[in-house]
User: Fold this.
Amino acid sequence: MLAQGMERADQGASRYYETYARWRRDPEGFWADAARVIDWFEPPQRIFDPSLGVYGRWFPDAICNTCHNAVDRHVIAGRGADTAIIYDSPVTGTKRRISYLELQQEVEALAAVLLDLGVTRGDRVILYMPMVPEAVFGMLACARIGAIHSVVFGGFAAKELATRIDDAKPKVILSASCGIEGNRIISYKPLLDGAIELAMAKPAACLILQRPQAVAAVTTGLDHDWSESAAAARQAKRQVPCVPLAATDPLYILYTSGTTGRPKGVVRDNGGHMVALAWTMDNHYGVAPGEVFWAASDVGWVVGHSYIVYAPLVYGCTTILYEGKPIGTPDAGAFWRVASEHGVCSLFTAPTAFRAIRKEDPEAKLLKPYDLSKFRSLFLAGERADPDTVKWAESILGVPVIDHWWQTETGWAIAGNPLGLGALPVKHGSPTVPMPGYDVQVLDEGGRSVPADVMGAIAVKLPLPPGTLTTLWNAEERFRESYLTAYPGFYNTSDAGYIDSDGYVFVMGRTDDIINVAGHRLSTGGMEEVLASHPAVAECAVIGVRDELKGEVPCGFVVLKAGMSRPPQEIEAELVAAVRERIGPVAAFKVAVVVDRLPKTRSGKILRGTMKKIADGEPWTMPATIEDPASLDEISGALKTRGLPVG
Ligand code: COA
Ligand code: AMP
Assistant:
């Protein structure tokens, strides 16, 4: 169906259709060509081996090192003086340019420190870091020596960090004394110490970057001072060569929300990852080596891994590491200031950032003073790009605004509008067309492909392309169950949507309990686990409620145990605090509502879908299977008393 749609669509000036058709005709030839831009220690003889791994492995006999490609080879090529990283931190008033040569020196020194701490190839290293250059040095130092990094976003609480420590069992943890959120200083060290105490698996050492905004007390025997250790290694001119690794060796584990409170450790390899990312920089983002590319995300998210760190550096661009927010640091002109000051050609962020800017500065008055003559494109991802926000961004910037759809699991866009190949006409509300490598199909419940414009489950025919997850860390069976069993022969994206008759993909929402809060992926199941563990709670349900700024925010409904005499407001406040304490502020869980009962079907299933429609102010119909229709009125009533919109 998709192929037919594509034949019908305007062939125009874009090279997209011929490129996609070329990939379809000869996937291995396509990726073999793409692989030529990578500097291999031993180039691949075999491109894909379907007999390896869960669904096959890419470049199984190649030998490479990601750090070599992201750093050393640019220095060897004579580009050592070119800027690799621009660190722009309005929250600390710091700007720093780091050349490729300096990056090499920093990474090599840190790699030496890691080796001294006993880290060797295949060991895991967790990073719990704010947006500082040392976070990037840490990731690359791991890549250099073949250690597997796992970055944990700073907005997660100690308990979440502990869960990841127990799963990854890191030999070393890299952290900093604090992060800075707007004008608030968040001490990381107590969170780190708390997590280590909670975890069963104890690291052998922690390397702590002391920041002057809040110097941490060194409380445990595990701690080493980052700056002192790295300075000593630099002074000693320690040389740490890039370790030759199998292309299929893991580069990193990135935990993402699963359908329960237990996060999934997405495993990324070295070779396929570099090949896919380098292909996207040229063909999708349409940037050239040496240009300034800015992903305004966080290194704790997949966008940060792929487009702050690996893709721009492997491709030889300058990347921006921005420690600030779209608003409030100091105002809604922050993005324009950074883009203009550093000559950014392409910005990648989440729609929520633009909604935030628009709310503060609807006429984009703060854009006017800035020269954005180098600025060519805005890419949006992380959540559905609502047409209103896209149109506003187009109108104020006057450049292509490209929605593209991807997931932590895939590491790069499943669907997008490939500027490098020539832009296709934009249809607002659609991330455009599948990228080469992805045979995207919409399936019905029986796993059959549905006609154009019909909603269904969006799935990708196996094998997945290079750069996508190879498995889940320590959980191959969970990988099969989560992604591969629902539709045999396909990867189940857990997104629902449709493909129109021009082959454009429309992604409308998740089919599981994942919600998207300010571009951050969260599991409502995980929040329900926290609520259910409160001694006063008998049962609960958490749903994602539409929010003008964040897209969605969680809202919890709880039924208290019989005979509970404490004031409900007191318990509600405790529940809000518990989610913040156990999951973290990033959950943005601010509303818990005590109700007498939850609406259920006669077979006892909680009617979350209908509750969500009521809370979103959408029209809804009474489910035929409901146990007691009055229970839904009670939900509306409870929401109304809190001033929330009700349908
Ligand atoms: N460390 C500690 N706390 C953090 C944190 C971090 N790295 N990141 C966020 N938090 C905290 C925030 O301070 C906030 O705390 P609060 O409840 O005490 O105010 C809470 O987590 C929720 O954060 P967030 O949802 O980001 O809300 P916000 O009001 O601070 O900012 C936006 C709203 C829209 C400006 C912001 O979410 C944003 O810039 N989003 C872009 C999304 C993005 O980069 N997504 C990545 C994929 S592209
Ligand atoms: P994450 O793994 O955090 O990147 O979140 C992935 C999920 O975010 C996807 O499964 C989608 O539900 C949603 N998502 C990301 N990008 C888009 C997009 N461009 N359009 C619609 N949904 C998106």
User: Anything to note?
Assistant: The mean pLDDT is 95. The longest strand covers residues 537-547. The first helix runs from residue 2 to 8.
